[in-house]
Design brief:
CATH architecture of the largest domain: Roll
Distance between the termini: 33 Å
Number of strands: 11
CATH superfamily of the largest domain: Hotdog Thioesterase
CATH class of the largest domain: Alpha Beta
Number of helices: 3
Number of domains: 2
Structural class: alpha+beta
Shape: globular
CATH topology of the largest domain: Thiol Ester Dehydrase, Chain A
């Protein structure tokens, strides 16, 4: 088991904390479960450039920054069916309507921030589809890993519930990776709202190869702030 993790400043969500999906993927990797499946619950915004200690906790692990509990995780995976695939051309068209181009709570987000450049951020811009779904095209970076796929699954689900003046952040993520695509591959990420209860929204997301092969899927809880 990994003894500590550090989230580099490049991998931010909000400006001063780690992107939720990337952080969850790193924690899942500490469990050696980033591919087979893990459930990661974020208890506080993950700090950047800060060594975080990994401690055994019950059937999983706990992540601490000093005395503060940052996250907890167990080896498991998302239940239910994946969000259906979307043709690549439809995802390209949907992305032109990405709401984050006009109003983004965290425009420098590693995954979906429009201020990030190619090679620095993932630049996944999920736009709306009928039925409360989102879709985005994604060109896989050269340094892709299973952790990258956790990040890619994060924001497309969130943007199914985020609206102007209604920001949300990731609270819990369960994901499983079936296959990591090669750098340069063209993929599609999809998202959908599965339910809303008070300040919490349950969303699902899935990553597909251009030919419609399922690569990874996630089920997440987002919290209104």
């Amino acid at each position: 088991m990994t003894e500590q993790i550090v989230i580099g400043s490049r991998f931010n969500g909000p400006p001063e904390s780690g992107n939720g999906g990337y952080t969850a993927g790193l924690i899942a990797r500490a469990l050696a479960a980033e591919r087979t499946g893990a459930v990661v619950t974020l208890r506080t915004p993950p700090p950047l450039d800060t060594p975080m200690r990994i401690d055994p906790a019950g059937h999983g692990i706990a992540v601490h920054a000093g005395a503060e509990l940052v996250a907890e995780a167990t080896a498991d995976g998302p239940d239910g069916e994946p969000v259906p695939a979307v043709p690549y051309g439809d995802a390209v068209r949907a992305a032109t309507g990405y709401p984050g181009f006009a109003d983004h709570p965290f425009p420098t987000c590693y995954v979906c921030g429009p201020r990030r450049t190619t090679g620095d951020g993932l630049r996944i811009f999920p736009g709306p589809l009928p039925g409360g779904r989102t879709a985005a095209p994604w060109t896989v970076p050269a340094d892709v890993s299973a952790v990258t796929l956790w990040a890619a699954l994060d924001c497309p689900g969130g943007w199914a519930i985020i609206a102007p003046g209604r920001p949300y952040v990731l609270g819990r993520m369960a994901a499983r990776v079936h296959a990591v695509p090669p750098g340069g591959a063209r993929c599609v990420v999809t998202g959908v709202v599965a339910g809303v209860e008070g300040r919490k929204a349950t969303v699902r997301s899935a990553l597909y190869a251009e030919d419609g092969t399922l690569l990874a899927l996630a089920r997440s809880t987002w919290i209104s702030i």
